[in-house]
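Why does residue order matter? Because the sequence determines the fold. Keep that principle in mind as you read this record.
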Amino acid sequence: MEQELGKMPSFKSLTVVSAVARHQSFTAASRELHVTPSAVSKQIAQIESWLGLTLFDRHGGAALPRPEARQLAEAMDKANVLLSDAVAAIRPTPAQGVLRVAAPATFAMRWLIPRLWTFSSRYPAVSVDVIQTHARDDLTAINYDVAIRQQPPIPPETRSRLILSDALGLVMSPALVRSRRPGSADLSRVMFLESESRPGELDRWLHLSGKANKSGARRRRFPHFYIALEAAMSGEGALVAPVITVGDLITRGLLCEPFQNRRIDACQIVAFAAPGRSTGNATTAFLDWLEGSASQTP
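Structure:
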């Protein structure tokens, strides 16, 4: 490559000078630069011609750097350090460390944890600790980086992301459906299951669907939703549940939804970073992953 008078030598030429000065050999420098020895020799000859001086003394297979070559090599080393520092400063730090995620127990077990492997494969340096929570838990008493909530309240001045709108439907075991008269829509003999952690959902479904008398419905209440869900799978009764969250159980035939056209208002599932804490790359990566995974949920 020809060098024009009055212009700086190319960065490529100076890189060759630095490599030859370091190895004191055209052949060794060519191996580092992944070029032929003749290409190295040509680059050195061109820059020497451009400078009007000899940079290396050739003795057999050796190329001994003169003071001018050493000066250029030292300048190139400093330039490389400056460039490396600049690149490191502007390049985002890879997501890493331990990420504490507080999530509702059933949502964590049925939706989040089965999908976490995709996040871990993308960000292997991030270890996710899932903290299972319940509706009445006080988030201020929990040490978390990301929180997932199914309903308000959320901390004030918190920017939350909507992850899912999960409609509520009546689910029960297929065995319970088979035990009823074929084609019957009568639920008067069915035990309704509900949980203290999700109050009011059964009443809303009964009222809006018109499937049973709200006051006369037989009920069994459990302290937590995931216990009520286990009871529904065991055939103990019918449960109003978020259909996306329990979708894997429906797909696997452990639950069914006989009244799919009677779903009611969606449960809003949101996620947000802990307030008052700087949002690190791991937190941002996890929130982005959550949104992406939710968008792929049928």
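The first helix runs from residue 11 to 23.
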